[in-house]
């Protein structure tokens, strides 16, 4: 191929760096983190409810509860992780910035 040993080492280093970056990429967070954030906001604002939050997100409360792990999904499993975009929407609906939620 006409590739020098130095070029091969550089390519190997680049590949390792890309693999490391993929390992650190976070595309979801634990639902417990989002639930704790929501629960804190519910305690802070007595007029706020999960039902109202679900309405703001244009979804049914049962779907919000399943998505955040308050209740089990079909099949009896509790959802343990939520995607960053969905978690960000929850935080924004609460009137907060997504960076205020650890992991977003």
Structural class: mainly alpha
Q: Which outline best applies?
A: elongated
Question: Per DSSP, what share of the residues sits in E-state strands of 2 or more residues?
Answer: 5-15%
Mean pLDDT across every amino acid position: 90
Rg calc = 20 Å
| Residue runs with pLDDT of under 50 for 5 or more positions | none
Number of domains: 1
Break the fold down into its secondary structure elements and pairings.
Layout: H1 5-24, E1 28-30, H2 31-44, H3 50-56, H4 61-68, E2 81-83, H5 84-93
Antiparallel strand pairs: 1-2
Entry keywords:
single chain, 104 residues, mainly alpha, two-stranded antiparallel ribbon, 5 helices, 2 strands, 57% helix, elongated
Structural commentary:
The chain has one domain (25-100). The longest helix has 20 residues, at 5-24. The protein has helices at residues 5-24, 31-44, 50-56, 61-68, 84-93; strands at residues 28-30, 81-83. It is mainly alpha-helical and 104 residues long. Helix content is 57%, strand content 6%. It has a two-stranded antiparallel sheet.
Offer a concise description of the structure:
The chain is mainly alpha-helical and 104 residues long.
């Amino acid at each position: 191929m006409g590739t020098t040993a130095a070029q091969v080492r550089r390519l190997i280093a680049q590949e390792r760096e890309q693999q490391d970056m993929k390992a650190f990429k976070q595309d979801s967070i634990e639902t417990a983190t989002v639930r704790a954030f929501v629960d804190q906001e519910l305690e802070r604002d007595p007029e706020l409810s999960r039902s109202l939050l679900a309405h703001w997100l244009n979804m049914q409360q049962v779907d919000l509860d399943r998505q955040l792990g308050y209740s089990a999904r079909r099949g009896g499993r509790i959802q343990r992780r939520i995607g960053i975009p969905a978690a960000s929407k929850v935080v924004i609906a609460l009137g907060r910035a997504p960076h205020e939620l650890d992991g977003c």
